[in-house]
Amino acid sequence: MLLQQFNEADRAQLDATLRPCVDNQRWIDEIAAARPFTTLDQLFSQALNAASPFTPAEVAAAMAHHPRIGERAAGNSAEATLSRREQSGVDPSNTELARALADGNRAYEEKFGQVFLIRAAGRTPQEILAVLQKRLGNTPEQEAPIVAQQLREIAVLRLKGVMSQ
C-alpha cells in the first residue's frame, strides 16, 4: 500500500489494513488519528509510539491470535498469512527441532499461561529455541515486558510489510 493510499483510506479500510498487524483498537485509533503521515518513517514511529506501552490486557487480547512457534497458522486471513511468513524459517520436517519447540512451548504455557511469543522473522530456529529456553528462567514479572516488546516488534514489522506491498 502506498503512503498516500494509507492516508486517504476510509476508516473501515484502515482498520482492515492495521488489524492483522496487531488486533488492538487503541493502537489502530492512535495511528488513524495521527494521519496524514508525510513519510513511512513517521508512520512507523507513530506505530511504535502507539504500542508503547501495550497494557497487560491488550497483550492478552492480541496473544489470542498468535499460534505457537513451530506451528503453522491455519486459514486464509491476513494475520495467518503474516504469521506463516514470519515463521517460514522454522522447518516442521526437522523432527528434533519440532519436538524441542513443542516441549518448550508446553513448558512455557504451563509456567506463564500463554503461548510463547517472539518476533520470529530474521531469527533462525536455533536462535528461537535458545531464547525460549532462556525465557523459561524468567519470572512472570520479568517476562511480561519482554512479551509486550515482542508484540510491538511484530506489529511494526507487519505494518512495514503491508506498506511495502
Features of this protein?
single chain; 165 residues; mainly alpha; 64% helix; elongated; OHCU_decarboxylase-2; OHCU_decarboxylase
Summarize the structure.
By secondary structure, this protein is mostly helical. Helix content is 64%, strand content 0%.
Description:
- With 165 residues, the chain is mainly alpha-helical.
- It has one domain (3-163): Oxo-4-hydroxy-4-carboxy-5-ureidoimidazoline decarboxylase (UraD-like), CATH 1.10.3330.
- It is built from 9 helices and no strands.
- It has helices at 3-8, 11-18, 25-34, 40-50, 56-63, 78-86, 95-112, 125-135, 140-163.
- α2 (11-18) packs across α3 (25-34) and α3 (25-34) runs antiparallel to α4.
Q: What value does the average pLDDT take?
A: 89
Judging from the principal axes of the Cα atoms, what is the shape? elongated
The poorly predicted ranges are none
Query: Could you estimate the helical fraction of the residues in percent?
Result: 55-70%
Task: Tell me how many strands there are.
Answer: 0
Hey, roughly how much beta strand do the residues contain? under 5%
**CATH class (first level) name:** Mainly Alpha
Biggest β-sheet strands, sense, barrel: none
How many individual helices?
A: 9
Q: Can you tell me the CATH architecture?
A: Orthogonal Bundle
Q: In angstroms, what is the radius of gyration?
A: 16 Å
CATH H-level superfamily title:
Oxo-4-hydroxy-4-carboxy-5-ureidoimidazoline decarboxylase
Task: Give the CATH topology.
Answer: UraD-like
Write the H/E string, N to C. Answer: HHHHHHHHH
Region (Disordered): 73-95
GO biological process, one term: urate catabolic process
InterPro entries: OHCU_decarboxylase (IPR018020), OHCU_decarboxylase-2 (IPR017595), OHCU_decarboxylase_sf (IPR036778)
Pathway: Purine metabolism; urate degradation; (S)-allantoin from urate: step 3/3
